[in-house]
Design a protein that fits this description.
alpha/beta; Pyruvate-ferredoxin Oxidoreductase, domain 3; Rossmann fold; 4 domains; six-stranded mixed sheet
Length: about 575
Protein backbone atom coordinates (compact mmCIF):
# COMPACT_ATOMS: atom_id res chain seq x y z
CA UNK A 1 0.00 0.00 0.00
CA UNK A 2 1.54 3.33 -1.07
CA UNK A 3 1.53 6.50 1.03
CA UNK A 4 1.97 9.97 -0.42
CA UNK A 5 2.83 12.75 2.01
CA UNK A 6 2.08 15.88 0.02
CA UNK A 7 1.42 19.58 0.56
CA UNK A 8 0.75 19.29 4.31
CA UNK A 9 1.53 16.46 6.71
CA UNK A 10 1.89 16.12 10.46
CA UNK A 11 4.55 14.25 12.43
CA UNK A 12 4.09 13.56 16.15
CA UNK A 13 7.06 12.40 18.24
CA UNK A 14 6.00 11.18 21.68
CA UNK A 15 7.70 9.87 24.81
CA UNK A 16 8.48 10.52 28.44
CA UNK A 17 10.09 13.68 29.74
CA UNK A 18 13.83 13.09 29.60
CA UNK A 19 13.75 10.91 26.48
CA UNK A 20 14.88 13.77 24.23
CA UNK A 21 11.83 14.34 22.06
CA UNK A 22 12.74 18.05 21.87
CA UNK A 23 16.09 17.11 20.36
CA UNK A 24 14.29 14.98 17.74
CA UNK A 25 11.96 17.86 16.86
CA UNK A 26 14.83 20.36 16.70
CA UNK A 27 16.80 18.22 14.24
CA UNK A 28 13.70 17.54 12.12
CA UNK A 29 12.57 21.17 12.04
CA UNK A 30 15.95 22.62 11.06
CA UNK A 31 16.72 19.98 8.44
CA UNK A 32 13.26 20.18 6.87
CA UNK A 33 13.51 23.98 6.72
CA UNK A 34 16.90 23.68 5.03
CA UNK A 35 15.25 21.26 2.61
CA UNK A 36 12.78 24.03 1.70
CA UNK A 37 9.69 23.04 3.72
CA UNK A 38 7.64 25.27 6.01
CA UNK A 39 7.71 23.74 9.49
CA UNK A 40 5.75 24.57 12.65
CA UNK A 41 6.34 22.83 15.99
CA UNK A 42 3.81 22.73 18.86
CA UNK A 43 4.52 21.26 22.29
CA UNK A 44 2.23 19.08 24.44
CA UNK A 45 3.82 18.33 27.81
CA UNK A 46 2.76 17.23 31.28
CA UNK A 47 3.79 19.13 34.41
CA UNK A 48 6.50 16.65 35.43
CA UNK A 49 10.28 16.74 35.47
CA UNK A 50 10.45 13.08 34.41
CA UNK A 51 7.84 10.56 33.31
CA UNK A 52 4.38 11.39 32.05
CA UNK A 53 3.68 11.42 28.33
CA UNK A 54 4.78 14.35 26.18
CA UNK A 55 4.76 15.02 22.47
CA UNK A 56 5.89 17.48 19.84
CA UNK A 57 3.80 18.04 16.71
CA UNK A 58 5.55 19.10 13.51
CA UNK A 59 3.45 20.41 10.63
CA UNK A 60 5.39 20.22 7.40
CA UNK A 61 3.83 22.05 4.46
CA UNK A 62 4.21 23.80 1.14
CA UNK A 63 2.68 26.94 2.61
CA UNK A 64 3.03 28.42 6.06
CA UNK A 65 0.56 26.78 8.48
CA UNK A 66 1.07 27.79 12.12
CA UNK A 67 -2.03 26.09 13.53
CA UNK A 68 -2.58 22.99 15.65
CA UNK A 69 -3.76 19.96 13.71
CA UNK A 70 -5.50 16.95 15.24
CA UNK A 71 -4.69 14.46 12.48
CA UNK A 72 -1.41 12.51 12.70
CA UNK A 73 0.23 11.29 9.47
CA UNK A 74 3.41 9.87 11.04
CA UNK A 75 3.49 8.76 14.68
CA UNK A 76 6.87 8.05 16.31
CA UNK A 77 6.64 6.82 19.93
CA UNK A 78 9.91 6.58 21.89
CA UNK A 79 7.84 4.93 24.63
CA UNK A 80 5.21 2.25 23.72
CA UNK A 81 2.74 3.73 26.25
CA UNK A 82 2.36 6.75 23.98
CA UNK A 83 0.03 4.79 21.67
CA UNK A 84 -2.85 4.77 24.16
CA UNK A 85 -2.32 8.42 25.07
CA UNK A 86 -2.64 9.69 21.47
CA UNK A 87 -4.96 7.02 20.02
CA UNK A 88 -7.87 9.42 19.46
CA UNK A 89 -5.77 11.25 16.85
CA UNK A 90 -4.94 8.17 14.74
CA UNK A 91 -6.61 7.55 11.38
CA UNK A 92 -6.58 4.80 8.77
CA UNK A 93 -3.75 6.67 7.01
CA UNK A 94 -1.49 7.09 10.06
CA UNK A 95 1.99 5.61 9.61
CA UNK A 96 3.47 4.11 12.80
CA UNK A 97 7.23 4.00 13.37
CA UNK A 98 8.50 2.39 16.57
CA UNK A 99 7.93 -0.68 18.71
CA UNK A 100 4.46 -1.82 17.54
CA UNK A 101 1.49 -1.91 19.90
CA UNK A 102 -1.04 -4.46 18.52
CA UNK A 103 -3.92 -2.80 20.41
CA UNK A 104 -3.53 0.38 18.33
CA UNK A 105 -1.64 -0.55 15.14
CA UNK A 106 -3.54 -3.66 14.02
CA UNK A 107 -5.35 -3.17 10.69
CA UNK A 108 -9.14 -3.34 10.76
CA UNK A 109 -11.29 -4.06 7.68
CA UNK A 110 -10.18 -1.78 4.86
CA UNK A 111 -7.81 0.01 7.25
CA UNK A 112 -4.39 -1.10 5.90
CA UNK A 113 -2.04 0.58 8.31
CA UNK A 114 1.66 1.04 7.61
CA UNK A 115 3.73 -0.15 10.55
CA UNK A 116 7.49 0.34 10.56
CA UNK A 117 8.88 -1.66 13.50
CA UNK A 118 11.93 0.10 14.94
CA UNK A 119 13.32 -0.41 18.44
CA UNK A 120 15.10 2.91 18.95
CA UNK A 121 16.36 1.99 22.42
CA UNK A 122 17.94 -1.28 21.26
CA UNK A 123 19.52 0.42 18.26
CA UNK A 124 20.95 3.10 20.54
CA UNK A 125 22.53 0.42 22.75
CA UNK A 126 24.09 -1.05 19.62
CA UNK A 127 25.65 2.34 18.84
CA UNK A 128 26.98 2.63 22.38
CA UNK A 129 24.42 4.28 24.67
CA UNK A 130 20.64 4.58 24.94
CA UNK A 131 20.94 8.38 24.94
CA UNK A 132 21.38 8.19 21.16
CA UNK A 133 17.81 6.89 20.69
CA UNK A 134 16.56 10.39 19.85
CA UNK A 135 19.27 10.94 17.21
CA UNK A 136 18.45 7.55 15.65
CA UNK A 137 14.75 8.49 15.62
CA UNK A 138 15.52 11.79 13.87
CA UNK A 139 17.63 9.99 11.28
CA UNK A 140 14.97 7.34 10.68
CA UNK A 141 12.25 9.95 10.10
CA UNK A 142 14.41 12.00 7.72
CA UNK A 143 15.43 8.86 5.85
CA UNK A 144 11.78 7.90 5.51
CA UNK A 145 10.99 11.35 4.09
CA UNK A 146 13.87 11.19 1.62
CA UNK A 147 15.61 14.37 2.74
CA UNK A 148 19.23 15.18 1.93
CA UNK A 149 21.34 13.21 4.44
CA UNK A 150 24.21 15.72 4.24
CA UNK A 151 21.98 18.50 5.56
CA UNK A 152 21.26 16.35 8.62
CA UNK A 153 24.90 15.47 9.35
CA UNK A 154 25.94 19.11 8.88
CA UNK A 155 23.29 20.26 11.38
CA UNK A 156 24.33 17.63 13.94
CA UNK A 157 27.98 18.60 13.60
CA UNK A 158 27.20 22.26 14.32
CA UNK A 159 24.74 21.38 17.11
CA UNK A 160 27.10 19.06 19.05
CA UNK A 161 30.48 20.63 18.26
CA UNK A 162 30.71 22.29 21.68
CA UNK A 163 30.64 18.81 23.27
CA UNK A 164 33.71 17.54 21.48
CA UNK A 165 34.57 15.46 18.44
CA UNK A 166 33.76 12.12 20.08
CA UNK A 167 30.15 13.13 20.82
CA UNK A 168 29.82 14.57 17.31
CA UNK A 169 31.02 11.32 15.71
CA UNK A 170 28.75 9.15 17.87
CA UNK A 171 25.67 11.23 17.03
CA UNK A 172 26.45 11.21 13.31
CA UNK A 173 26.94 7.43 13.45
CA UNK A 174 23.54 7.10 15.21
CA UNK A 175 21.91 9.46 12.72
CA UNK A 176 23.24 7.59 9.70
CA UNK A 177 22.14 4.25 11.14
CA UNK A 178 18.62 5.60 11.57
CA UNK A 179 18.66 7.25 8.13
CA UNK A 180 19.46 3.93 6.43
CA UNK A 181 16.59 2.21 8.26
CA UNK A 182 14.20 5.00 7.22
CA UNK A 183 15.31 4.85 3.59
CA UNK A 184 14.72 1.09 3.51
CA UNK A 185 11.32 1.44 5.18
CA UNK A 186 10.22 4.08 2.66
CA UNK A 187 11.06 1.67 -0.16
CA UNK A 188 9.36 -1.30 1.52
CA UNK A 189 6.18 0.61 2.39
CA UNK A 190 6.16 2.76 -0.77
CA UNK A 191 6.17 6.00 1.25
CA UNK A 192 7.30 9.15 -0.48
CA UNK A 193 6.97 12.93 -0.18
CA UNK A 194 5.60 14.66 -3.27
CA UNK A 195 5.87 18.18 -1.85
CA UNK A 196 7.99 20.58 -3.91
CA UNK A 197 10.55 22.45 -1.78
CA UNK A 198 10.66 26.26 -1.86
CA UNK A 199 13.99 28.04 -2.05
CA UNK A 200 12.99 31.06 0.06
CA UNK A 201 12.14 28.95 3.14
CA UNK A 202 15.79 27.96 3.58
CA UNK A 203 16.63 31.54 4.63
CA UNK A 204 13.79 31.82 7.15
CA UNK A 205 14.63 31.79 10.85
CA UNK A 206 13.31 29.54 13.59
CA UNK A 207 12.20 31.14 16.83
CA UNK A 208 9.84 30.39 19.68
CA UNK A 209 7.11 32.72 20.86
CA UNK A 210 9.20 33.47 23.96
CA UNK A 211 12.09 34.51 21.72
CA UNK A 212 9.78 36.67 19.58
CA UNK A 213 8.64 38.57 22.68
CA UNK A 214 12.24 38.86 23.89
CA UNK A 215 13.42 40.19 20.52
CA UNK A 216 10.49 42.63 20.54
CA UNK A 217 11.48 43.88 23.97
CA UNK A 218 15.03 44.60 22.81
CA UNK A 219 13.78 46.23 19.60
CA UNK A 220 11.49 48.43 21.68
CA UNK A 221 14.40 49.77 23.72
CA UNK A 222 13.89 47.62 26.82
CA UNK A 223 16.91 47.97 29.11
CA UNK A 224 15.51 46.45 32.32
CA UNK A 225 13.56 43.32 33.21
CA UNK A 226 12.83 41.93 36.64
CA UNK A 227 10.68 38.83 36.95
CA UNK A 228 10.09 35.75 39.05
CA UNK A 229 10.09 32.49 37.05
CA UNK A 230 6.64 31.14 36.20
CA UNK A 231 5.67 28.87 33.33
CA UNK A 232 5.03 29.59 30.52
CA UNK A 233 6.49 33.12 30.78
CA UNK A 234 9.96 32.16 32.01
CA UNK A 235 11.31 31.77 28.47
CA UNK A 236 11.25 35.55 27.98
CA UNK A 237 13.27 36.13 31.16
CA UNK A 238 15.87 33.49 30.28
CA UNK A 239 16.13 34.72 26.67
CA UNK A 240 16.87 38.28 27.80
CA UNK A 241 19.30 36.99 30.44
CA UNK A 242 21.18 35.05 27.75
CA UNK A 243 21.06 37.62 24.97
CA UNK A 244 20.19 41.01 26.40
CA UNK A 245 23.61 42.14 27.59
CA UNK A 246 24.81 43.23 24.15
CA UNK A 247 21.67 45.42 23.89
CA UNK A 248 22.19 46.92 27.34
CA UNK A 249 19.42 44.98 29.13
CA UNK A 250 19.84 44.64 32.89
CA UNK A 251 18.19 41.42 34.11
CA UNK A 252 17.17 40.80 37.72
CA UNK A 253 15.48 37.62 38.94
CA UNK A 254 13.39 38.78 41.87
CA UNK A 255 12.49 36.79 44.99
CA UNK A 256 8.78 37.13 44.20
CA UNK A 257 6.36 38.82 41.80
CA UNK A 258 5.71 41.83 44.05
CA UNK A 259 9.42 42.57 44.19
CA UNK A 260 9.71 42.05 40.43
CA UNK A 261 7.14 44.63 39.40
CA UNK A 262 8.23 47.16 42.02
CA UNK A 263 11.85 46.91 40.91
CA UNK A 264 10.72 47.43 37.33
CA UNK A 265 8.68 50.48 38.36
CA UNK A 266 11.69 51.80 40.26
CA UNK A 267 13.88 51.40 37.19
CA UNK A 268 11.22 53.13 35.07
CA UNK A 269 11.02 56.03 37.56
CA UNK A 270 14.78 56.43 37.10
CA UNK A 271 14.41 56.57 33.31
CA UNK A 272 14.73 52.94 32.23
CA UNK A 273 12.36 51.26 29.79
CA UNK A 274 11.15 48.22 31.74
CA UNK A 275 9.16 45.04 31.23
CA UNK A 276 8.04 42.28 33.56
CA UNK A 277 7.02 38.80 32.39
CA UNK A 278 4.70 36.48 34.32
CA UNK A 279 1.60 34.29 34.12
CA UNK A 280 -1.86 34.80 35.63
CA UNK A 281 -1.01 33.57 39.12
CA UNK A 282 2.03 35.82 39.26
CA UNK A 283 0.14 38.83 37.96
CA UNK A 284 -2.39 38.39 40.79
CA UNK A 285 0.35 39.59 43.14
CA UNK A 286 1.25 42.54 40.94
CA UNK A 287 -2.12 44.26 40.68
CA UNK A 288 -1.55 46.81 43.49
CA UNK A 289 1.58 47.98 41.70
CA UNK A 290 -0.36 48.40 38.44
CA UNK A 291 -2.45 50.93 40.32
CA UNK A 292 0.78 52.55 41.55
CA UNK A 293 1.99 52.79 37.96
CA UNK A 294 -1.27 54.49 36.99
CA UNK A 295 -1.37 57.23 39.63
CA UNK A 296 2.36 57.98 39.49
CA UNK A 297 2.19 57.81 35.67
CA UNK A 298 5.24 55.57 35.62
CA UNK A 299 5.43 53.52 32.40
CA UNK A 300 5.56 49.73 32.57
CA UNK A 301 4.93 46.82 30.21
CA UNK A 302 3.58 43.56 31.62
CA UNK A 303 3.77 40.40 29.54
CA UNK A 304 1.27 37.76 30.72
CA UNK A 305 1.74 34.28 29.22
CA UNK A 306 -1.62 32.67 29.98
CA UNK A 307 -2.30 29.16 31.21
CA UNK A 308 -5.46 27.54 32.63
CA UNK A 309 -6.45 28.33 36.22
CA UNK A 310 -7.73 28.85 38.81
CA UNK A 311 -4.90 28.22 41.24
CA UNK A 312 -2.01 26.29 39.76
CA UNK A 313 -4.51 24.83 37.29
CA UNK A 314 -2.77 23.23 34.30
CA UNK A 315 0.64 24.92 34.38
CA UNK A 316 1.97 23.42 31.14
CA UNK A 317 -1.24 23.76 29.06
CA UNK A 318 -2.74 26.63 27.15
CA UNK A 319 -5.68 28.96 27.77
CA UNK A 320 -6.99 32.51 27.39
CA UNK A 321 -8.31 33.07 30.89
CA UNK A 322 -6.50 36.24 32.01
CA UNK A 323 -7.99 38.87 29.71
CA UNK A 324 -10.45 40.10 32.34
CA UNK A 325 -7.64 40.06 34.92
CA UNK A 326 -5.50 42.30 32.70
CA UNK A 327 -8.50 44.53 31.93
CA UNK A 328 -9.49 45.09 35.57
CA UNK A 329 -6.35 44.31 37.62
CA UNK A 330 -5.50 47.21 39.89
CA UNK A 331 -7.89 49.28 41.99
CA UNK A 332 -9.31 52.61 40.89
CA UNK A 333 -10.01 53.94 37.42
CA UNK A 334 -7.21 54.56 34.97
CA UNK A 335 -6.12 53.98 31.39
CA UNK A 336 -4.38 50.86 30.10
CA UNK A 337 -3.81 49.11 26.76
CA UNK A 338 -3.98 45.36 26.09
CA UNK A 339 -2.33 43.80 23.05
CA UNK A 340 -3.06 40.20 22.03
CA UNK A 341 -0.73 39.19 19.17
CA UNK A 342 -1.47 36.12 17.07
CA UNK A 343 1.79 35.46 15.17
CA UNK A 344 5.51 35.62 16.03
CA UNK A 345 5.79 38.74 13.87
CA UNK A 346 3.00 40.36 15.90
CA UNK A 347 4.56 39.26 19.19
CA UNK A 348 7.76 40.99 18.11
CA UNK A 349 6.12 44.14 16.76
CA UNK A 350 3.52 44.62 19.50
CA UNK A 351 5.99 44.06 22.35
CA UNK A 352 8.20 46.76 20.85
CA UNK A 353 5.13 48.96 20.29
CA UNK A 354 3.96 48.37 23.87
CA UNK A 355 7.23 49.71 25.28
CA UNK A 356 6.99 52.81 23.10
CA UNK A 357 3.33 53.35 23.99
CA UNK A 358 3.90 52.94 27.73
CA UNK A 359 6.67 55.54 27.61
CA UNK A 360 4.77 57.96 25.38
CA UNK A 361 1.53 57.92 27.40
CA UNK A 362 3.03 57.02 30.83
CA UNK A 363 0.62 54.13 31.41
CA UNK A 364 0.70 50.37 32.04
CA UNK A 365 0.54 48.36 28.80
CA UNK A 366 -0.12 44.61 28.61
CA UNK A 367 0.99 42.01 26.08
CA UNK A 368 -1.02 38.78 26.42
CA UNK A 369 0.23 35.51 24.95
CA UNK A 370 -0.32 31.90 26.09
CA UNK A 371 1.48 28.58 26.52
CA UNK A 372 0.81 27.48 22.95
CA UNK A 373 2.48 30.61 21.57
CA UNK A 374 5.36 30.70 24.05
CA UNK A 375 6.48 27.12 23.51
CA UNK A 376 5.78 26.74 19.79
CA UNK A 377 8.58 26.97 17.25
CA UNK A 378 7.84 29.14 14.20
CA UNK A 379 9.51 29.43 10.80
CA UNK A 380 9.32 33.08 9.71
CA UNK A 381 11.07 35.52 7.37
CA UNK A 382 14.03 37.23 9.02
CA UNK A 383 13.17 40.68 7.69
CA UNK A 384 10.03 40.74 9.89
CA UNK A 385 12.33 41.04 12.92
CA UNK A 386 14.52 43.92 11.79
CA UNK A 387 15.75 46.65 14.14
CA UNK A 388 13.54 49.63 14.96
CA UNK A 389 14.15 53.24 15.87
CA UNK A 390 13.56 53.95 19.55
CA UNK A 391 12.06 57.31 20.52
CA UNK A 392 12.92 58.70 23.95
CA UNK A 393 10.24 60.73 25.73
CA UNK A 394 12.13 61.76 28.88
CA UNK A 395 12.70 65.53 29.06
CA UNK A 396 15.48 67.50 30.69
CA UNK A 397 13.91 69.35 33.61
CA UNK A 398 14.31 73.03 34.49
CA UNK A 399 13.94 74.80 37.82
CA UNK A 400 10.19 75.33 37.27
CA UNK A 401 9.52 71.69 36.35
CA UNK A 402 6.19 70.16 37.40
CA UNK A 403 6.01 66.39 37.07
CA UNK A 404 2.20 66.33 36.78
CA UNK A 405 1.57 69.54 34.89
CA UNK A 406 -1.97 69.79 33.59
CA UNK A 407 -1.83 69.72 29.80
CA UNK A 408 -4.32 69.77 26.94
CA UNK A 409 -3.49 66.25 25.79
CA UNK A 410 -3.36 64.74 29.29
CA UNK A 411 0.34 63.91 29.04
CA UNK A 412 2.70 65.66 31.46
CA UNK A 413 6.38 66.11 30.53
CA UNK A 414 8.24 63.17 32.08
CA UNK A 415 11.43 64.03 33.87
CA UNK A 416 13.65 61.69 35.88
CA UNK A 417 15.82 62.45 38.90
CA UNK A 418 19.23 63.87 38.04
CA UNK A 419 18.42 64.78 34.44
CA UNK A 420 18.15 68.57 34.54
CA UNK A 421 17.84 71.25 37.19
CA UNK A 422 14.31 70.41 38.33
CA UNK A 423 13.09 68.26 41.21
CA UNK A 424 10.99 65.20 40.37
CA UNK A 425 8.36 64.57 43.03
CA UNK A 426 6.15 61.49 42.86
CA UNK A 427 3.44 60.32 45.24
CA UNK A 428 1.00 57.40 45.27
CA UNK A 429 -1.53 59.64 47.02
CA UNK A 430 -3.50 62.06 44.89
CA UNK A 431 -1.15 64.94 44.16
CA UNK A 432 -0.86 68.42 42.73
CA UNK A 433 1.07 69.38 39.59
CA UNK A 434 4.39 69.29 41.46
CA UNK A 435 3.68 65.80 42.75
CA UNK A 436 2.92 66.71 46.35
CA UNK A 437 0.02 65.12 48.24
CA UNK A 438 -3.30 66.94 48.05
CA UNK A 439 -6.86 66.52 49.27
CA UNK A 440 -8.26 69.28 47.11
CA UNK A 441 -11.38 67.37 46.05
CA UNK A 442 -13.12 70.32 44.41
CA UNK A 443 -10.46 70.99 41.81
CA UNK A 444 -7.20 69.04 41.78
CA UNK A 445 -8.66 65.55 42.33
CA UNK A 446 -11.06 66.04 39.44
CA UNK A 447 -8.46 67.63 37.19
CA UNK A 448 -5.89 64.90 37.82
CA UNK A 449 -8.41 62.12 37.22
CA UNK A 450 -9.61 63.81 34.03
CA UNK A 451 -6.01 64.22 32.87
CA UNK A 452 -5.22 60.53 33.38
CA UNK A 453 -8.46 59.32 31.79
CA UNK A 454 -8.17 61.76 28.86
CA UNK A 455 -5.33 59.58 27.60
CA UNK A 456 -7.98 57.12 26.40
CA UNK A 457 -9.26 59.69 23.90
CA UNK A 458 -5.73 60.36 22.67
CA UNK A 459 -5.03 56.64 22.35
CA UNK A 460 -8.17 56.00 20.34
CA UNK A 461 -7.45 58.94 18.06
CA UNK A 462 -3.80 58.16 17.50
CA UNK A 463 -2.86 54.52 17.98
CA UNK A 464 -5.81 52.14 18.51
CA UNK A 465 -5.49 49.10 16.22
CA UNK A 466 -8.28 47.95 13.95
CA UNK A 467 -9.08 44.22 13.89
CA UNK A 468 -7.75 42.27 10.90
CA UNK A 469 -10.76 41.31 8.74
CA UNK A 470 -10.91 38.57 6.10
CA UNK A 471 -13.80 37.74 3.77
CA UNK A 472 -16.80 39.61 2.43
CA UNK A 473 -17.44 42.64 4.65
CA UNK A 474 -21.17 42.18 3.94
CA UNK A 475 -21.24 38.52 5.06
CA UNK A 476 -23.99 38.13 7.69
CA UNK A 477 -21.89 36.08 10.14
CA UNK A 478 -18.65 37.30 11.72
CA UNK A 479 -16.39 34.95 13.71
CA UNK A 480 -13.98 36.78 16.00
CA UNK A 481 -10.71 35.59 17.53
CA UNK A 482 -7.91 37.13 19.55
CA UNK A 483 -4.38 36.08 20.40
CA UNK A 484 -3.19 32.61 19.44
CA UNK A 485 -6.38 31.62 17.58
CA UNK A 486 -5.52 33.78 14.57
CA UNK A 487 -3.82 31.01 12.56
CA UNK A 488 -6.35 28.27 13.33
CA UNK A 489 -9.34 30.49 12.49
CA UNK A 490 -7.85 31.73 9.22
CA UNK A 491 -6.96 28.22 8.03
CA UNK A 492 -10.32 26.76 9.10
CA UNK A 493 -12.18 29.59 7.33
CA UNK A 494 -10.40 28.76 4.06
CA UNK A 495 -11.14 25.05 4.42
CA UNK A 496 -14.79 25.57 5.44
CA UNK A 497 -15.63 27.62 2.31
CA UNK A 498 -18.65 29.17 4.02
CA UNK A 499 -19.34 32.36 2.05
CA UNK A 500 -21.77 33.58 4.70
CA UNK A 501 -18.89 33.95 7.18
CA UNK A 502 -16.29 36.68 7.53
CA UNK A 503 -13.59 36.54 10.21
CA UNK A 504 -11.88 39.17 12.34
CA UNK A 505 -8.81 38.90 14.56
CA UNK A 506 -8.14 41.39 17.38
CA UNK A 507 -4.53 42.22 18.20
CA UNK A 508 -5.79 44.95 20.56
CA UNK A 509 -8.52 43.87 22.93
CA UNK A 510 -8.65 47.07 24.99
CA UNK A 511 -9.49 49.81 24.28
CA UNK A 512 -11.40 48.83 21.15
CA UNK A 513 -11.03 50.76 17.92
CA UNK A 514 -14.21 52.77 17.13
CA UNK A 515 -14.75 50.76 13.93
CA UNK A 516 -15.61 47.68 16.01
CA UNK A 517 -19.09 49.06 16.69
CA UNK A 518 -19.87 49.03 12.96
CA UNK A 519 -18.36 45.58 12.52
CA UNK A 520 -20.73 44.10 15.09
CA UNK A 521 -23.77 46.23 14.28
CA UNK A 522 -23.82 45.15 10.62
CA UNK A 523 -23.50 41.42 11.36
CA UNK A 524 -26.59 39.27 11.75
CA UNK A 525 -24.67 36.77 13.91
CA UNK A 526 -21.57 37.48 16.00
CA UNK A 527 -19.47 34.52 17.20
CA UNK A 528 -16.38 34.73 19.42
CA UNK A 529 -13.79 31.94 19.50
CA UNK A 530 -11.65 31.87 22.64
CA UNK A 531 -9.95 29.42 25.04
CA UNK A 532 -12.00 30.04 28.17
CA UNK A 533 -15.32 28.92 29.62
CA UNK A 534 -17.19 32.19 30.06
CA UNK A 535 -16.40 34.21 26.92
CA UNK A 536 -14.20 36.93 28.42
CA UNK A 537 -13.64 38.87 25.21
CA UNK A 538 -17.28 38.42 24.27
CA UNK A 539 -18.15 40.22 27.52
CA UNK A 540 -15.77 43.08 26.71
CA UNK A 541 -17.26 43.43 23.23
CA UNK A 542 -20.80 43.63 24.61
CA UNK A 543 -19.92 46.12 27.35
CA UNK A 544 -17.80 48.37 25.15
CA UNK A 545 -20.04 48.41 22.04
CA UNK A 546 -23.56 47.74 23.33
CA UNK A 547 -23.95 45.04 20.66
CA UNK A 548 -24.85 41.39 21.28
CA UNK A 549 -22.53 38.40 20.91
CA UNK A 550 -24.81 35.59 19.75
CA UNK A 551 -22.52 32.61 20.24
CA UNK A 552 -19.53 31.96 22.47
CA UNK A 553 -17.34 29.25 20.97
CA UNK A 554 -15.22 28.30 23.97
CA UNK A 555 -12.67 25.63 24.87
CA UNK A 556 -11.20 25.33 28.34
CA UNK A 557 -9.64 21.85 28.61
CA UNK A 558 -6.06 23.13 28.21
CA UNK A 559 -5.76 22.01 24.58
CA UNK A 560 -5.63 24.43 21.65
CA UNK A 561 -8.38 24.55 19.06
CA UNK A 562 -7.59 22.26 16.13
CA UNK A 563 -8.04 23.15 12.46
CA UNK A 564 -10.44 20.22 12.04
CA UNK A 565 -12.65 21.27 14.97
CA UNK A 566 -12.91 24.94 13.97
CA UNK A 567 -13.56 24.00 10.32
CA UNK A 568 -16.57 21.93 11.42
CA UNK A 569 -17.84 24.80 13.56
CA UNK A 570 -17.63 27.31 10.71
CA UNK A 571 -19.34 24.94 8.29
CA UNK A 572 -22.13 24.46 10.82
CA UNK A 573 -22.72 28.22 10.95
Amino acid sequence: MGHKLSKDFTIVVAGQAGQGIESVASVLAHVLKKQGYHTYVAKDVMSRVRGGMNSLMLRVSNERNDAYREKIDLFVPLDPRAYAHYAKRFSARTIFMGVPDPAHTTSRGDDKRSIIPVNFIQLAHDVGNRIFANTIAAGTILGLLGTDKEIGTHYLRSFFQRKGEKIVDQNIKAFEKGYTIGEHAAFQEDIHVTMVPKNDVEDYIFLSGAEAVGFGAMAGGCNFISSYPMSPATGVLTFLAQNGRECGVLVEQATDEIGAINMTLGASYAGARGIVTTSGGGFDLMTESISLSAITETPIVVHIAQRPGPGTGLPTRTGQEDLVLARHGGHGEFMRVIFTPGTPEQMYALTAHALDLADRYQIPVFVLTDQLMMDSLYCAPEEAFSARDVTQYVVETDSDYKRYALTKDGISPRGVPGHGAGLVHSDSDEHDEEGRITEDMDFLRKEMMDKRLFKRKRLLEKVALKPDRTGDAKAPIVVISWGSNKAVLEEAWVKAKNVKVQIAHFTQTYPLHPSVVDLLAHARTVVVLENNATGQFADILEVETGEVVHERMGSWNGEPFSVEDVTKKIRAL
